[in-house]
Amino acid sequence: MSSRQPHLSARLQGFGTTIFTEMTRLALQHSAVNLGQGFPNFDGPEFIKEAAIAAIRAGHNQYARMTGIPDLNRAIAEHQRRFYDLRYDPDSEITVYSGATEAICAVFQALCDTGDEVVLFEPFYDSYRASITMAGAVPRVVTLRAPDFSYRPEELEAAITPKTRAILLNSPHNPSGKLFSRSELEHIAALCREHDLIAVTDEVYEHLVYEGTHVPLATLPGMRERTVLISSSGKTFSFTGWKVGHTCAPPAITAALRCAHQFVTFCTATPLQHALARAFVADDSFFTGLTAEYRARRDRLCDGLREIGLGVLTPAGTYFVMTDIRPLGYSDDLEFCRMLPEKIGVAAIPPSSFYVNPHEGRHLVRWAFCKTDEVLDEALRRLQKLRVSTSS
């Protein structure tokens, strides 16, 4: 075997994915309560599961249309009209993927040439930088700084060069829980228009907003025609393992995205698409109930972490909360999160791995609250040891 490291592997090393592997291993090894990985420990609604079973029994088990089954594309279009007054043609402007992560990869494969630059905000979802790099493009980061995770407008403006192709925006934002403000969105939109940039918006947590209102960037003047909107049924309907995501974009951009999607997965699980066509047209009560349930989980975990002595940065959205570990005498998130499973019996995620400049997040830890009350309460019970050990 050649001793030379594969080229792509060398380029992607250190991009943070090993953190999830390591934290999962430690959680399993020590039977820890896992508040690290962002997936619910409960299923989504029964009516969606039953629709998937019915689709399997009805014989919807072969390849689907590459762009998404017509019923799902129409349901997504209706969802966008209903919640945001965004009107997309289901056949020429909406595409279904095997998860939002595949959509992110396809976007940069389709839109970027070698040497193009993409501006994104750190901390970032780990696949962003990898997807940009695999497309031969170059990531340029702008830092969101705790405690409010705002950015400095001059830093964003300076990050844009003649090589910039796109700005990537995630709101509500993982891992910080930040909801970008209207003024921030208007600033980003103005830069996109001024420099003729594409906006790529990851909005998978669009229905998990507790403070303020989610405003898609595509709703701002002049932005629909230059925005690729990405979302995911996994977060909204609590079926993360189904891996069904979608994009909404103008026809010319959509055509390019489909060229990439065709040669990545080609199509997405057929019976699951039939089930989610039912989900997207659920009553308003489903969506308001989802938000209320997650707000209660957020408050439960935030209150408990605050009582233990952590500096809680209450999220406006998503199902993650960041905490400052310095009040408990810790200053290194990696060291803290490696200690937690063995000594405390809880797993969390060190967010410094989601930074190009890791010192910006070294004092923070991310916790997931997409768990049942019983799991959250057990985690908080175990975490009481931190308060005891600190005060002794």
Descriptive tags:
392 residues, single chain, 14 helices, 3-stranded antiparallel β-sheet, 7-stranded mixed β-sheet, alpha/beta
Outline the fold blueprint.
Layout: H1 7-12, H2 17-29, E1 33-34, H3 46-57, H4 70-84, E2 94-97, H5 100-111, E3 117-122, H6 127-134, E4 138-143, H7 153-159, E5 164-170, H8 182-195, E6 198-202, E7 227-232, H9 233-237, E8 245-248, H10 251-262, H11 270-279, H12 284-308, E9 311-313, E10 320-324, H13 333-344, E11 346-347, E12 364-368, H14 373-391
Parallel strand pairs: 1-11, 3-4, 3-5, 5-6, 6-7
Antiparallel strand pairs: 2-8, 7-8, 9-10, 10-12
The helical percent reads 40-55%
Overall form: globular
Order of helices and strands: HHEHHEHEHEHEHEEHEHHHEEHEEH
Largest sheet: 7 strands, mixed
Mean pLDDT comes to 94
CA-based gyration radius? 21 Å
Given helix and strand content, the structural type is alpha/beta
* DSSP summary, beta strand count: 12
